[in-house]
Model the fold of this input.
Amino acid sequence: MRKSKVNVAYIILKIIMIVLIVYFSTDLIIQTISYSFYKGDKQLKEVTYNPTEIRINDSLYGYGYNMDADSNKVILFFGGSMYVAYNTIGMYAGRFDCPVLSVDYYGTQKSKGKMNLKTMQRSAEELYDYAARKYPGRDFYIFGHSYGCGMAAYLASVRDCRHLVLASGYRSCADLYNKIIPIYFGPMQVFIKNNIRVDRYAKNTSCPVAILGSDADTTLSAKTQQKVADCYNNADCKIFSGIRHEDYFVTDEVIRYVKENVLK
Done:
C-alpha cells in the first residue's frame, strides 16, 4: 500500500515537472522569436518615406519624419513585428502632417544593450522625454500597431498623452502566445516571464483611446479588439472591413478615420 502511494506521488510529481518544463520552455521560445523580429538586418530595401535617424542618447536610437513640420502635434509610433523604427517611419510617417518619431528598443538595431520588458519600457519613456525636450508645449499622440501596442499602451499610462491609438492590439502576451499554443489562460499567464500587460496599463490611462480592428485581421481578431477596448474606461472601438493585419496604416480609410477622430 505504501509503495503504491509512493508510485502515485512520483507520477504526479513527474507530470507537474513536465507541465512546468512545457510552460517555461514555450515562453522562452516564443519570446526569443518575438524579440528576433526587431534584431538583425530588418530594414526594408524600399520605403515610401525617407526616415531621418535620431539619437535619443548615447545608446538609444530611432528614426523620425517631418521633424520640422509646423504643427502642434507629435506622434510617437511603435511598430509591430518586423517594423523596426526605420520601417515604421519609412512606411507610415508621411501620412501625417506632423513630426512622427519611432524608437529602436535597447538591444535592437543600432541601440545598445539587452532587450527585455524593462528596457523596452525605458526605451519608450526615453523616446517620449527626448520628444518633449525637442517639441516643448506640443500635444503628444501615441500610436501602436500589433506587438507595438504593448509599449504604446505602457507609455500612455506613464506619460501625458492627448490620444492613444492601438491598431490590432492585445490584452497581454497571452493573447499572442495562445495563437501559437493555447495554454496561457487565466492564472497560467504567470509563466510568461516578460508579460506585456496592456490590461493593467489601461487602469492607469486617462486619455481617450481609439482601438482599431478589422474583420479580415486573422492575427488579432476584431473580437479581441473589443476585449482590449473593454479594458479602458474611455475607448472607442472601430472595426473596419477587409483590412489585413499589416495594412492598417497604409489604408486611406484608416488614415481618414484617425485624422477626423483622433488628430482633430
